[in-house]
C-alpha cells in the first residue's frame, strides 16, 4: 500500500480493490499489454495492492524493447554513413546494438539527431538537400499516424532526400500469439488505451471471442488500471469474454478515423520479428510500394545482419507473461538498465527496467540473503 | 513512449496545407498537427503524441494526466530540440 496516499482518490481506489476481493473466488492471471501501463503499475505498486491470487503479468507493448537487435544494427550501419543525417526519438539512442549505441556513434562524429516529431525530418531534409535524412520509425499503432504523415508529406511535396527505417509493431497479433502458446497462462487482458485511441477496438473483438478471453481497453492512471482489472475479473468470474472499454473518456470503438485512414494509405501489414519473441505473422507494418522511394531499407541496401542475444536472458518468456523479472538469474546483477542484456531491460517501459527503477531487484537480493541465512542456520 | 501528453491549443496556423497549432504543456509550448482532430479549436485540450494531436480531452482530465506523466518522468519527448531553419542546418 506504499503509494496509495499519492492517489488522487485513495478512497475510490480502496473501494475498487475491495470489490475485486469481494467477487474473486479463484486465482486469475491478467496481462497489461502496454509498456506505459507496466511502468505505471510498478511505480504505483498496483500489482502489490491487488488481492492475493490476482496476478498481473507484463506484455510486449514497448516499441523500444521489441525492436530487433538486427534492426538496431541496421540503424547503426545507416547512421554511420558519411552523407546521412540520422534522426530518432530520444528513447532509441541508448539502446545497445551489437557494437555500442547511437550515442557512441554520435560521439564518434556521425550526424545523429533527436527529434520531437517525425515532421522535423522534413525541415532538416529541406535545409540539407545534399544529405540523405533517415528517420528511425519505431512504434506501435499510436505512433504510426505521425510516421505515416512524414512519408505522405515527403512524397506529396517531392522532398526526395528523406526516408524512414520502419520498425512498427501491432498489438492484436501479439495478443493472439501469446494466447496460442501452449505455455500460455494469461486469462484476461488490459488492452492498450492510447493504441486504441488511434485504432479503436474492433480488432480485439474476434480475439476475445475466439480465445474466450475478456479484454478491457484501459488507460494508464492508477484508477484506470484498477478499474480495468475489476472489469476483467468480473468477466472472468462470470465466465463471459467480450471487449469492454474502460477508457471511454478518450476513445470509442472506431478510434481516430482520419489517422487510421492515412496509416492504411502509407503502410501495409507485414510479418515482423519481435526482439526476445521471434517472428509473429502479420504483426507489423511496411511501406506500401508507392512509397518505396522513402524506404531506407531499399535505399541503403543494408545486408541482413546476424545477431546473437545472450543465452541467459529470459525476456521472451517475460514478454509472453510466462515469467517475471525476478525469475531471471541475471536480473539486477549482470543485467541492469546501464548494462541491459535483452528486450525488457533496454527501455524504461520494459518490465525488467521498471522493476529495477522502483527497487524491486533489492527485494530479490533480500530474499536471496534471507534464504542463504536460513540455509546457514540449518547447516 | 506510446503515451500521449495533454496540452492546451493556444493558436492555430497553416503550414504546407496542414492545420498546425501551438500547444501549451505546463511551461513548455510546442507545435503540433491538428490534422487528426478536425474538431479541435483554440482553447481546447488535446492529447499529443510526437507532434500530432490524436484526441481531445476535457480540461480536468488534461491537468490530471499531465501531472501523472510528470510524476512518471514521461515528458522527455517535450524536451527534444526545436528544429528551426538554423538548427536544421547545423549538426547538433
List the helices and strands and how they pair.
The complex is a heterodimer of chains A (379) and B (92).
Chain A: H1 10-23, E1 28-34, H2 35-44, H3 46-49, E2 54-61, H4 63-66, H5 69-79, E3 84-88, H6 102-107, E4 111-114, H7 120-127, E5 132-139, H8 144-157, E6 162-169, H9 171-180, E7 188-192, H10 193-199, H11 204-211, E8 215-218, H12 222-238, E9 243-245, H13 257-266, E10 267-274, E11 278-287, H14 296-300, H15 315-319, H16 351-357, H17 360-378
Parallel strand pairs in A: 1-2, 1-7, 3-4, 3-5, 5-6, 7-8, 8-9
Antiparallel strand pairs in A: 6-11, 10-11
Helix pairs in contact in A: 1-12, 2-16, 8-13
Chain B: E1 5-15, E2 18-25, E3 28-33, E4 45-49, E5 52-57, H1 59-71, H2 85-89
Fold and architecture overview:
- The complex is a heterodimer of chains A (379) and B (92).
- Chain A has 379 residues and is α/β, with parallel strands linked by helices.
- Chain A has a single domain (1-379), classed as HypD, alpha/beta domain 2 (Rossmann fold), CATH 3.40.50.
- Chain A is 42% helix and 18% strand.
- Chain A has helices at residues 10-23, 35-44, 46-49, 63-66, 69-79, 102-107, 120-127, 144-157, 171-180, 193-199, 204-211, 222-238, 257-266, 296-300, 315-319, 351-357, 360-378; strands spanning 28-34, 54-61, 84-88, 111-114, 132-139, 162-169, 188-192, 215-218, 243-245, 267-274, 278-287.
- In chain A, strand 10 (267-274) and strand 11 (278-287) form a beta hairpin.
- The two termini of chain A are 36 Å apart.
- The model of chain A is unreliable at 1-6 (pLDDT under 50).
- Chain B has 92 residues and is an alpha+beta fold.
- Chain B contains two helices and five strands, in the order βββββαα.
- The longest helix of chain B is centred in the C-terminal third of the chain and has 13 residues, at 59-71.
- Chain B is 20% helix and 39% strand.
- In chain B, strand 2 and strand 3 (28-33) form a beta hairpin.
- The chains are: A alpha/beta (379), B alpha+beta (92).
- Chains A and B meet through helix 2, strand 4, helix 7, helix 8 and helix 10 of A and strand 3, strand 5, helix 1 and helix 2 of B.
Amino acid at each position: 500500500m506504499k503509494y496509495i496516499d499519492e492517489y488522487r482518490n485513495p478512497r475510490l481506489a480502496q473501494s475498487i480493490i475491495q470489490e475485486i476481493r469481494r467477487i474473486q473466488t479463484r486465482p486469475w492471471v491478467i496481462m497489461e499489454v502496454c509498456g506505459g501501463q507496466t511502468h505505471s503499475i510498478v511505480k504505483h505498486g498496483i500489482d502489490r495492492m491487488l488481492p492475493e491470487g490476482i496476478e498481473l503479468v507484463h506484455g510486449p507493448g514497448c516499441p523500444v524493447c521489441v525492436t530487433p537487435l538486427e534492426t538496431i544494427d541496421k540503424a547503426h550501419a545507416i547512421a554511420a554513413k558519411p552523407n546521412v543525417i540520422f534522426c530518432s526519438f530520444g528513447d532509441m539512442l541508448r539502446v545497445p546494438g551489437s557494437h555500442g549505441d547511437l550515442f557512441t556513434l554520435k560521439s564518434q562524429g556521425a550526424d545523429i539527431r533527436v527529434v520531437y516529431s517525425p515532421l522535423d525530418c522534413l525541415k532538416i531534409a529541406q535545409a540539407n538537400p545534399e544529405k540523405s535524412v533517415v528517420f528511425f520509425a519505431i512504434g506501435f499503432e499510436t505512433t504510426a499516424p505521425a510516421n505515416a504523415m512524414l512519408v505522405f508529406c515527403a512524397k506529396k511535396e517531392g522532398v526526395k532526400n528523406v526516408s524512414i527505417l520502419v520498425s512498427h509493431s501491432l498489438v492484436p497479433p501479439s495478443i493472439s500469439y501469446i494466447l496460442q502458446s501452449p505455455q500460455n497462462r494469461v486469462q484476461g487482458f488490459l488492452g492498450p488505451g492510447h493504441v486504441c485511441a488511434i485504432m479503436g477496438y474492433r480488432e480485439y473483438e474476434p480475439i476475445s471471442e475466439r480465445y474466450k478471453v475478456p479484454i478491457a481497453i484501459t488507460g494508464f492512471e492508477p484508477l484506470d488500471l484498477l478499474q480495468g482489472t475489476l472489469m476483467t475479473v468480473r468477466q472472468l468470474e462470470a465466465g463471459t469474454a467480450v471487449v469492454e472499454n474502460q477508457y471511454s473518456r478518450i476513445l470509442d470503438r472506431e478510434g481516430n478515423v482520419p489517422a487510421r485512414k492515412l496509416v492504411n494509405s502509407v503502410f501495409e501489414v507485414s510479418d515482423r520479428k519481435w526482439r526476445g519473441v521471434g517472428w509473429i505473422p502479420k504483426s507489423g507494418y511496411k511501406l506500401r510500394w508507392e512509397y518505396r522511394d522513402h524506404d531506407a531499407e531499399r535505399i541503403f541496401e543494408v545486408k541482413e545482419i546476424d545477431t546473437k542475444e545472450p543465452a541467459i536472458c529470459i525476456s521472451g518468456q517475460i514478454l509472453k507473461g510466462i515469467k517475471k523479472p525476478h525469475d531471471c538469474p541475471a536480473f539486477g546483477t549482470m543485467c541492469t538498465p546501464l548494462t541491459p542484456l535483452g528486450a525488457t531491460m533496454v527501455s524504461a517501459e520494459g518490465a525488467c527496467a521498471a522493476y529495477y527503477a522502483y527497487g524491486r531487484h533489492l527485494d530479490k537480493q533480500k530474499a536471496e540473503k534471507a534464504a542463504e541465512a536460513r540455509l546457514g542456520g540449518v547447516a | 513512449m506510446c503515451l500521449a501528453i495533454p496540452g492546451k491549443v493556444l493558436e492555430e496556423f497553416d503550414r504546407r496545407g496542414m492545420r498546425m497549432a501551438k500547444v501549451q504543456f505546463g511551461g513548455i509550448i510546442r507545435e503540433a498537427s491538428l490534422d487528426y482532430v478536425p474538431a479541435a479549436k483554440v482553447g481546447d485540450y488535446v492529447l499529443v503524441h510526437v507532434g500530432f494531436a490524436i484526441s481531445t480531452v476535457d480540461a480536468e482530465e488534461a491537468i490530471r494526466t499531465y501531472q501523472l506523466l510528470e510524476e512518471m518522468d514521461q515528458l522527455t519527448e517535450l524536451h527534444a530540440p526545436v528544429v528551426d531553419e538554423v538548427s536544421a542546418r547545423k549538426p547538433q
